[in-house]
Amino acid sequence: MAELADPSVLVDPANWTCPAPLRDQPIVVMGHGGGGTLSAELVEQVFTPAYGNATLAALGDSAVLDLGGARLAFSTDSYVVRPLFFPGGSLGDLAVNGTVNDLAMSGARPAHLSAAFVLEEGVEVAVVERIARALGQAAEAAGVTVVTGDTKVVEAGHGDGVYVTTAGIGLVPDGVDIRPQRARPGDAVIVSGPIGLHGVAIMSVREGLDFGVEVASDTAPLADLVAAVLAATADVHVLRDPTRGGLAASLNEIARASGTGVRLRERDVPVPEAVANACGFLGLDPLYVANEGRLVAFVPRPAADEVLAAMRAHPRGAGAVIVGECVAEHPGMVVVSTGLGGTRVVDMPLGEQLPRIC
């Protein structure tokens, strides 16, 4: 037992079987891809300084560019979900809907996509074909066309089946200015429907868990829903699709970008019973679980009821609800008023609760 008395054995993180994602981590860890604090630090400390321009520094879901007199939204994303197929969707669906939704969050009408496949040697061609067909069908449903692409193959053991990267472009209507810096105290915070479904759907298949009812991913294109919101009012301040890091990460990003606070009412956040049960069983917070077919909107309070009605009239927003407001207090922070009358801080996640989620 003498070895156990050596303090270096007890406290040296290098000796842990599963090291925590330390903030000064000198190597990339899984948490750097989780959409939380580690992801933000990687972008801010490595990529933003390397590219150095104001458009990138805005860190929106998509970049809005002036090109030949038109306002063009441009976005790119990579998809590495495991498993490749899950209740409610597949890698192909995510590759379209994720990029289409990033464009829509700037108010753009998505138009065209590129699709690049990285295939691991040994993957079945039938699997690739199934993903490609799902991607094509999702593009058709979203009203976009896949106009260019690329394919690469890596040696067996140097990939994980199939990775897909999509980039997309769309047009932003005149008069629309949607970005996280525009959040203002007094804005109503609206969520378009129940949260946490995508993360729980992936987890249930990956881990072979049975929660008593099948939970299907909410993956879906949101451009038509955004168009309905803009038809109700062009003065939408912020839109975000809460994917990696869930609603918590998106709200923290908005609060920090705008220098305002966000206050949620826990009882109003739409968490399905199956998601609540799964999160309770696994010790997860639904606010941090990924979504792929939901948006959060910040709109001036006088327009909130009209926007809410427009959302609820659309199939993708039937479950929309006002969950809180933007406030001048506690700038840069998100707090939740609990059902017991207390208040808790909802911070940016450090890494990720569920790896390989999108």
UniProtKB/TrEMBL annotation:
InterPro entries with a match to the protein in the record: HypE, PurM-like_C_dom, PurM-like_C_sf, PurM-like_N, PurM-like_N_sf
Highest taxon in the source lineage: Bacteria
Annotated PurM-like C-terminal domain residues: 184-330
Signal peptide (from-to): none
PANTHER family for the chain: CARBAMOYL DEHYDRATASE HYPE (PTHR30303:SF0), HYDROGENASE ISOENZYMES FORMATION PROTEIN HYPE (PTHR30303)
Family statement drawn from the similarity comment of this UniProt entry: Belongs to the HypE family.
UniProt domain PurM-like N-terminal: residue ranges: 61-172
Official protein name in the record: Hydrogenase expression/formation protein HypE
GO biological process annotation, one example: protein maturation
